[in-house]
Design goal:
Layout: H1 4-9, H2 20-39, H3 48-93, H4 96-106, H5 109-112, H6 117-129, H7 140-155, H8 158-166, H9 170-196, H10 201-221
Helix pairs in contact: 2-3, 2-7, 2-9, 2-10, 3-4, 3-7, 3-8, 4-6, 8-9, 9-10
């Protein structure tokens, strides 16, 4: 069993960028941001210029937040990797009993409950065998994943603004855009449930769609 500490000090061999939870979370983030902007378009007052402005604002906002989210993703990785490397160094230098206690505190609760002294000692010995070295704290993979985060946040916007580019009637475009948002929220919730092994992922998808409906109703209530 590899601990998060060990995973930090050995080469990362993951085969794909971002895990499913990260991917779906970023899509949801971009989608919800776009929903709030699209919902703010007023049918009563919106002319073609207003719609173009709101559409550009939605895209621009998600571009900005996609960039912020990507930068924060790299910073988060750097911070966590640095913390774990320093913790690994402390474990290596600590007495065996202290080292085992430090490792136990880093294990997820469910894993810690079924991990005894023998397993902890095996982890400590494996950690001692791993050269800590001075591998880079920020890797090329971090930047690739940050680009992925940026693209997911931004691309989640486009399905919601396309109706306003293709449909002249603002009311109809808003209905179509909201329908697309519901479908995307449902699919995202379904994928999260399926990845988590939920016995009824369709229910989680429906719950996510309901969340989107509540958000849109809140925007409408606030004058959107």
């Amino acid at each position: 069993m590899a601990t998060p500490i060990q995973a930090t000090v050995v080469q990362d061999t993951r085969g794909r960028l971002l895990d499913p939870v990260d991917r779906i979370s970023e899509i949801l983030f971009g989608l919800i941001m776009a929903v709030t902007f699209v919902g703010s378009i007023s049918v009563a007052t919106a002319g073609s210029e207003d719609v173009r402005t709101a559409t550009a604002s939605a895209l621009g906002c998600n571009l900005a937040w996609g960039l912020v989210d990507a930068v924060m993703y790299v910073i988060r990785n750097l911070t966590e990797r640095t913390r774990r490397r320093r913790l690994a160094q402390r474990i290596v230098e600590a007495a065996p009993e202290t080292a085992r206690d430090m490792i136990a505190k880093e294990l997820p609760p469910g894993v810690a409950d079924i991990t005894g002294p023998r397993e902890l000692e095996a982890m400590r010995e494996r950690l001692l065998a791993v050269p800590l070295g001075k591998s880079p704290m920020v890797t090329g993979r971090d930047f690739l994943e940050a680009v992925g985060v940026f693209l997911l946040v931004v691309l989640a916007t486009f399905p919601l603004v396309v109706p306003f580019l293709l449909i002249d009637d603002v009311a109809t475009a808003k209905h179509v855009s909201r329908g697309v948002a519901f479908v995307m929220l449902f699919l995202a919730g379904y994928e999260l449930g399926r990845h988590a092994g939920h016995p009824h992922p369709l229910r989680l998808g429906a719950a996510m769609a309901v969340f989107g409906a509540v958000l849109i109703l809140a925007v409408i209530a606030l004058g959107g």
